[in-house]
Every structure is written in structure tokens, then in C-alpha cells.
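Much of what follows relies on a compact textual record of a protein's fold. With that in mind, consider the following protein and its fold in C-alpha cell form.
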Amino acid sequence: MSEALDTAPYIMDSAWAYVWRGVLEYQRGHYQLARLSLRRALVLYPDPGVRGLDTISPGLANLLDVESRAIRTFRAWDLDQPVRWLTAPQFVYPRELRRRRVSGPAVVRMLVDTLGRVDERNIEILETPDSAFSTPLKQTLSSVLFSPARIAGKPVRSLVSYRFNLTPPAPRDPVRLIDLARTQLRAGQPDSALDLLEQALDPANGATRAVRVYAELVRGVAWQAKHDTARAAGSFELGLGHYRQLAAHGVDFAPFLRSLADSIRLTAPRE
């Protein structure tokens, strides 16, 4: 067998040599070596056309079948049962694309393995309204769990394509986001609060200048909770500066916001 591998003129010949080396190793009781030889044969040629191994040993035929299903990729027309979604994709819309309200169809092709998983490297973006969607789409699909395709009741690797209609989420109420951030601060979660404040200040959510003042003041409190006095001072300075500008133009702030601004003016750290 080693000489046959060294002198094989074609890939198919090498695949056959590996198959028969696997047969010999299996008969000698070297099952792991047999598995490795069969796997190498299938990598060289996914369907080497080997038939009748069950006449030698049912276990050998089963071993080839298991290795074949783990390596060979099947198309939709080969399958008895197609891939099914087990978990819904949790797509995070890129912030810049949400801000620009970019939407449209996306078409992806991916390889689902026998465990129902998708490796990010095996996802191909065929169509997308913007190239910035490519990375989040791959990250989303690689985190989804599928029920693998099956042939004769056994799981197989399969190549599938899907079409998605990407639509940016509706704008969120920025005041509600800031209120939630304050709740997180009271619970001792400044990082979660900062994330909510970043969302509140996203232009896609249409915060007014007064609401942005509210967000900046609360962001200063969040940085203060993280003991980052420089950033806290910067947020307070920005928020109070805009507060004074709007007040000078006759903006009547809500009582709770006036109270917040007053308390910060008295206690805010200075760089």
C-alpha cells in the first residue's frame, strides 16, 4: 500500500490506495489507523465509489459511512430531510447602518455540519445592501444552532442558501433609555448604563438637545461610578455647558432635570 501511494499517478488512485490501506488496518484491529486512512481517502476524493465493504465487515462499512458524512458536502436535491433552524438568529444591526436606515435583501450560502453548526469561515455572502453587513451576518449565523440535514436518517453536511430582508429596528425612546441607565446605576451596573446611554445618544433615536443634556449628565454619573474622574468631569462639563446655553435661550427644563443639574454643579469633580 505504501508503494501504491508513492507511485499513484492520479488522485483517484491515491484515494483507492488509502481505502484499501484502511481495510487492511481495520482487519488487523488498528481501528484508529483505519479511520485515519479512510478519512484521507475521502479528503482526496469525497466519493471514491467504494461499494461492498459490508461483505468484509459491517463495522468497516459503517466506519466509511461515518467518515463520509463528516467530510462530504451534500446539496439540497441529495437530502431526505433539509436543514432546520433550532434557534432564531439574533442579528445586531450595525449602528452606522441603522443611523442611515440602510435596508435591503441579503443572500448567504453556508455549510451546516453534522452537529448543526456553521463555521464562520464556511459562510459566503452572495448579496447584501452594504458590505458592512457581512461581518455581523457571519457572526450571527455562526452562533445559530441548526438541526442538520439527513439522508436515510443519518446527519450529513449540507450546503444551504438563505435570503434575509434586513430592516433597521424602529427608533427607541431616548428618555426611556436614559431612565433605564439610571436604574442600572442604582443597581451598581455602570457598564450597562454606559451602553444604554450610548444608544440614547444615537442620532437614529432622535434625542432633542435637552434630552442630550440629560444623557450627558447621567453619563458623567456613570463614569464617576467607575472612578474615572477625567471622563466624568468631561461629561459633566459638556452636559452643563449645553444646559446653560439652552436655559439662556429660554428652554424650560423639567424639574427633575433642573434638580439633577443643580446637584451636579455642587458635587461634580474637576480635572
In short: The chain is about 50% helix and 15% strand. The chain has three domains: 2-71, 78-166, 174-267.
